[in-house]
Amino acid sequence: MWIKRSPFENPKGLANLIGYRMFDGMVHQKNTKSFENAPEVPNFSRGHYLYRTRCAACHTMGQGDRLGPDLLNVVDRRDRVWLIRWLKAPDQMLAEKDPIALELFVRYKIPMPNLQLSDIDVGHLIDYMASESRNIAEQHSVAE
Ligand code: HEC
User: Fold this and answer.
1) Residue 6 lies inside a defined structural domain of this protein
2) How much is the pTM?
3) Does residue 39 surpass a pLDDT of 80?
4) Which of 55, 108, 130, 144 is the least buried, fewest Cβ under 10 Å from its Cβ?
5) pLDDT tens per residue, range 102-117
6) Domain for residue 2, yes or no?
7) How far is Cα 126 from Cα 123, in angstroms, rounded to an integer?
8) Residues with beta carbon inside 6 Å of ligand 1?
């Protein structure tokens, strides 16, 4: 995984990405003792799976900024065409000096890597981010 990345990427981002993948986001649960106590593996949708394995190291939804911006409601916040292009080639958009890309880069300091996503996977990811944002909004309205 490390070899496949660009050597020009931010080392902190890489470490975070690889660490997250290796420990499956469970780095902080040091006292997990037995597989018997392991939570059941939920049945992930393709979008959810992609998000967890490719995006969650740098992004959260509704928990504030990580290495990148929080993605809650990003599907409503950004123009759809922009979002699709961004997910496919953030590096290219930055190189072309897209105003939003520049603004984000100034704020977050590290560039989002091009993850070589297919059109189909980009579609799954957008569906997942939209539905997860709705779920979170519903949970909030129930809690109030
Ligand atoms: C290595 C960290 C990293 C990974 C992995 C990553 N991103 Fe990002 N992402 C960023 C950063 C940093 C930004 C802010 C733009 C910049 O600085 O280039 C960003 C910006 C974004 C934005 C724009 C947010 C806005 O407010 O407009 C979206 C959408 C996004 N990422 C989605 C994703 C998705 C979906 C994935 C997984 C397929 C992903 N990112 C994977 C770091 C990452």
Assistant:
1) no
2) 0.78
3) no
4) 144
5) 999 999 999 999 999 9
6) no
7) 5
8) 13, 17, 54-55, 57-59, 67-69, 71, 74, 78, 83, 86-87, 90, 104-105, 108, 110-113, 115, 125
